[in-house]
Amino acid sequence: MLERTRSKKRTEITFVLPAGHPAGEVSVVGDFNDWRPGAHPMTERPDGSRAVTVTFPVDQHHGFRYLADGGHWLDEEGADGHDGRNCLLHT
Length: 91
Prior knowledge:
This protein has 91 residues and is an all-beta fold. Helix content is 0%, strand content 49%. Strands 3, 6, 7, 8 and 9 form a 5-stranded antiparallel β-sheet that branches. A 4-stranded antiparallel β-sheet has the order 1-2-5-4, with no helix packed on it. It is globular, with a radius of gyration of 12 Å.
């Protein structure tokens, strides 16, 4: 799930995964962090879900995916689109 907070010059996107899915560590990787695993690790919330917030300038497009332990890639169903390989995000 993607949670958005917009202002005139920036958009905060909170990437959220449900509790227990998947097991182990997960990070958000994308063209905004040079696809570096661990650059934006997801942390557990009180309800058990995991999340990380990234701030972007407005009116940009980015590709991203979730990367879980063991090299498992996950897609975001609530993404703004998919290009056949990555999830797409419009800020």
